[in-house]
Amino acid sequence: MLVRHGRSAHVQRGLLGLAEFHRWREAYESAGIDEEEQPPPSLQALASASGIVVASTALRAVRSAELLDGDRDIVTSPLLAELELSPPNFARLRMPLGGWALACGVRRAVRAESPMELRRAREAAEWLTDLANRHEALAPLERLVV
């Protein structure tokens, strides 16, 4: 089961230039999840019934996994981290965060996966397969849906 992490506690409004976008990304990643985020009870029950709960090393993912089942250790791996979505070099352009998200998504869509990204995907699949074989159930938590 793949679950989306909770919303970041960092809120951004207004127009951003390229340097501001990079600062936003760092703040977004390090902020953890919004205090109002709570997983549905049905999702908590699924996580509690699983043999293991795993998450990326991102603070949002770890905190989200802890909300699902705070009574056990969460197994983390950088193999589960989101792909880095680097923005195009729009040095003089200022736009809202949604514009930057669209620009990053378009750039990613037209770019082929690098050999390093493909290798990481294979390693993550092998790691998760091994965990699934050793545990009754597996609930990888990169993102928490609420």
- Number of helical stretches of at least 4 residues: 5
What is the beta-strand fraction?
5-15%
- The stretches of 5 or more residues where confidence is low (pLDDT under 50) are none
- Give a quick account of the main beta sheet: strands, pairing sense, barrel closure: 4 strands, parallel
- Summing up helix and strand content along with how strands pair, one would put the structural category as alpha/beta
Total of domains: 1
Query: How many angstroms does the end-to-end distance come to?
Result: 15 Å
Please give the share of residues in helix. 40-55%
The tally of beta strands, per DSSP, is 4
Shape from CA axes? flat
Succession of helices and strands? EHHEHEHHE
Average pLDDT over all residues: 86
Describe this structure in words.
This protein has helices at residues 18-30, 41-49, 59-68, 97-110, 115-134, and strands spanning 3-4, 52-55, 75-76, 138-143. The protein has 146 residues and is of the alpha/beta class. The protein has one domain. 45% of the residues lie in helices and 10% in strands. The two termini are 15 Å apart. The mean pLDDT is 86. A 4-stranded parallel sheet has the order 1-4-2-3, sandwiched between helices. Helix 3 links the parallel strand 2 and strand 3.
What is shown here, in short?
With 146 residues, the chain is α/β, with parallel strands linked by helices.
Key structural traits:
4 strands; alpha/beta; four-stranded parallel beta sheet; 146 residues
List the helices and strands and how they pair.
Elements (H helix, E strand, L loop, with lengths): L2 E2 L13 H13 L10 H9 L2 E4 L3 H10 L6 E2 L20 H14 L4 H20 L3 E6 L3
Parallel strand pairs: 1-4, 2-3, 2-4
